[in-house]
């Protein structure tokens, strides 16, 4: 649905970027690597204690490069196909083509594979040889590795990480099997075409590694290994399809963001495999000293999660289960800081203990606790999945965060309000401030949500939760009608990144349109233009909310200076510094599309909509929006909205959905029936009547 030439979901090039960090990544829920790199990473496998904890480098047999011996400057091309989840390198020589395809299998998450295909193009009968240049050595600076016996033709190494994250804690095990790689491959004189397959299986147990390798071998023998990956990946892309009719660059950016973010989530049929969270640079990055060492931040919960929730609630649940699994570590963090409940780490790895190398962030950037809980709230409002809270540990986490906020507040006799003192807001240019507007607003939201869930689960609601939610200070300047970032903030002071603007979205802190505008006007000119990539998307959402379409577009356009060519890999900062494959920035960008252009807002009573399109965009289609157990196809133009329930809730007691416009018009949403109405504000809710 893009104007201009070319498929917006296939990124091609005749040369690679000079900076290898900007090469594309191939990743699934458990394994990830950057193309042509000699290391890979396995989810949850960290080495190093506390501040030194980083993703353990696993030696990768996948990082090889084809070369054509004797050919004078053959034509080379490279492609990342986001529809098939496959990277390819092609050498076009007189008389033959050699193609190298690489992928992380989407449904067999312990398996990565590549193939080399040589195809004769003329009637010649001489052998054709392609060289394979590999840097692979079966050793690692992070793993104590031992060579084991070969298995079904594969070499085998196994071992453990060298240093546990916490003293006396587990050292994750790694078992790897791989197809031996020759220095060259030759197509015989009598052959027209041949394909060689190379598998790498990595798991935490010998049994799983062998099972995955055997399964891959059987599929490869049947000629269906790559096809089985493409089928699983294409099903995911179809289920999470978002299409824009707009400028080609915007459509390419959208497909790039969907490719990299969806690569990070678990496949639909893997409920038994624990998920290990999403770090800012994804699983392919995060070796020591790179991409925040593979740690998980608020980036996951605030910036990536809302998109995953609307498109794939099962994967969103897996992200929340990662936080539930690390709750004990968060409880210990709170105790060590002298507070009650649980304090989620600023940087999290496998245990939930603080692994940030610099103490100030773990001690002061406590808004992460509210960010985690907001993801739980959005999930609850969108799915009404009470099982997560009743049986699977969700309630214990909600309660622990509420207890932490209560113990972290102090009563101000002077203001007759609760204060939270000595924090670092999202704007990391300031620290040790009192009453960060964002931190206090997200704490209030945590407490209100905790009280709501308690009531729904028929549990007693502690009085102090409601009292503190009512009486916590969120700084507001009555004269200028805006929110100062913290007590004592002076207008004009530089700000690192989106902070107060987040009060409007995603926090939906109550305020008038005038105040929302003033916050945007106040902070837009003083926000560092070299700050992190996700910032401008939140200004764009704010201006879309106020129907300032040109201003929204100019903010969204700033994101493009963080998108590198040719593979649409994002950099954290526009000068190329910081994390690469910056999923946080991509998450912000996707929120402009999924929440900004649509006006979707997740609330307790319904899913609000209020579309706003900049002039360059004609149509937006979301093929499979998930809401309350239903899947909806939603198509929006400036003039009309079309909705159709393509799959209705499996809950026999659930009433069907309806769309309600602010004008009062109601449109029942029955499965298989398309409903259209003029584009206007409204909401989707369960129909009050259960009779069909």
Q: State the end-to-end CA separation.
A: 36 Å
Tally of structural domains: 3
CA radius of gyration is 26 Å
Uncertain runs: none
Silhouette:
globular
Largest sheet: 9 strands, antiparallel
- CATH homologous superfamily descriptor of the largest domain: Glycoside hydrolase, family 65, N-terminal domain
Domain Glycoside hydrolase family 65 C-terminal: 601-652
EC number: 3.2.1.107
Function: Catalyzes the hydrolysis of glucose from the disaccharide unit linked to hydroxylysine residues of collagen and collagen-like proteins.
GO biological process, one term: carbohydrate metabolic process
Written description of the protein model:
By secondary structure, this protein is an alpha+beta fold. It has three domains: 10-231, Distorted Sandwich (Beta-galactosidase, Chain A, domain 5), CATH 2.70.98.40; 312-528, Glycosyltransferase (Alpha/alpha barrel); 619-686, Jelly Rolls (Sandwich), CATH 2.60.120. It has a nine-stranded antiparallel β-sheet, with helices on one face.
């Amino acid at each position: 649905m893009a104007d201009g030439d070319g498929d917006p979901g296939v990124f091609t090039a005749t040369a690679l970027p000079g900076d290898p960090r900007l090469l594309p990544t191939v990743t699934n829920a458990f394994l990830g690597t950057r193309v042509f790199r000699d290391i890979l990473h396995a989810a949850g496998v960290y080495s190093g204690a506390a501040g030194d904890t980083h993703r353990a480098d696993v030696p990768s047999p996948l990082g090889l490069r084809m070369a054509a011996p004797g050919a004078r400057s053959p034509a080379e091309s490279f492609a990342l196909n986001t529809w098939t989840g496959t990277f390819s390198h092609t050498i076009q020589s007189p008389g033959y083509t050699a193609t190298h395809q690489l992928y992380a299998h989407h449904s067999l998450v312990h398996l990565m594979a590549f193939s080399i295909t040589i195809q004769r193009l003329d009637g010649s009968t001489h052998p054709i040889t392609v060289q394979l240049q590999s840097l692979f050595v079966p050793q690692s600076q992070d793993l104590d590795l031992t060579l084991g016996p070969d298995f079904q033709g594969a070499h085998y190494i196994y071992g453990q990480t060298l240093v546990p994250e916490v003293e006396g804690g587990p050292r994750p095990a790694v078992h790897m099997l791989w197809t031996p790689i020759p220095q060259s491959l030759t197509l015989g004189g009598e052959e027209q075409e041949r394909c060689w397959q190379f598998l790498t299986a990595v798991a935490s147990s010998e049994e799983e590694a062998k099972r995955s390798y055997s399964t891959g071998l059987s599929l490869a023998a049947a000629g269906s290994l790559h096809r089985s990956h493409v089928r699983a990946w294409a099903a995911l892309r179809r289920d999470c399809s978002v299409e824009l009719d707009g400028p080609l660059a915007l459509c390419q950016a959208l497909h790039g963001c969907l490719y990299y973010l969806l690569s990070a989530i678990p496949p639909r049929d893997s409920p038994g495999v624990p998920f290990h969270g999403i770090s800012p640079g994804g699983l392919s990055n995060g070796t020591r000293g790179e991409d925040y060492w593979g740690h998980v931040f608020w980036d996951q919960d605030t910036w990536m999660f809302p998109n995953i929730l609307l498109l794939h609630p099962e994967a969103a649940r897996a992200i929340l289960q990662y936080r539930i699994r690390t709750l004990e570590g968060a409880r210990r963090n709170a105790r060590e800081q002298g507070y009650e409940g649980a304090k989620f780490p600023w940087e999290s790895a496998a245990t939930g203990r603080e692994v940030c190398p610099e103490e100030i962030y773990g001690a002061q950037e406590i808004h992460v606790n509210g960010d985690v809980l907001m993801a739980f709230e959005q999930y609850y409002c969108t799915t009404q999945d009470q099982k997560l809270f009743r049986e699977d540990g969700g309630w214990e986490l909600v309660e622990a965060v509420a207890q932490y906020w209560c113990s972290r507040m102090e009563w101000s006799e002077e203001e007759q309000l609760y204060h939270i003192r000595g924090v670092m807001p999202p704007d990391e240019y300031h620290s040790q401030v009192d009453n960060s507007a964002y931190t206090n607003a997200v704490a209030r939201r945590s407490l209100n949500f905790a009280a709501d869930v308690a009531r729904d689960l028929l549990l007693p609601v502690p009085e102090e939760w409601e009292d503190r939610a009512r009486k916590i200070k969120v700084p507001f300047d009555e004269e200028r009608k805006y929110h100062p970032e913290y007590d004592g903030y002076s207008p004009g002071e530089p700000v690192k990144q989106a902070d107060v603007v987040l009060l409007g979205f995603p926090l939906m802190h109550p305020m008038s349109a005038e105040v929302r505008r003033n916050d945007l006007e106040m902070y837009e000119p003083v926000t560092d233009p070299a700050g992190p990539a996700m910032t401008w998307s939140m200004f764009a959402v704010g201006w879309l909310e106020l129907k300032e379409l040109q201003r929204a577009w100019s903010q969204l356009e700033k994101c493009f200076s963080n998108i590198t060519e040719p593979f649409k890999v994002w950099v954290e900062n526009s000068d190329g510094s910081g994390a690469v494959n910056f999923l946080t920035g991509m998450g912000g960008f996707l929120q402009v599309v999924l929440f900004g252009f649509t006006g979707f807002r997740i609330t307790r009573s319904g899913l609000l909509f209020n579309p706003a399109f900049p002039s360059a965009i004609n149509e937006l289609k979301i093929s499979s929006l998930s809401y309350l157990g239903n899947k909806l196809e939603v198509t929006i133009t400036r003039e009309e909205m079309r909705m159709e329930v393509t799959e209705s809730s499996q809950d026999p007691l659930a009433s069907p959905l309806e769309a309600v416009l602010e004008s009062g018009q109601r449109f029942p949403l029955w499965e298989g029936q398309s409903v259209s109405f003029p584009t206007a504000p409204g909401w989707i809710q369960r129909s009050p009547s259960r009779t069909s």
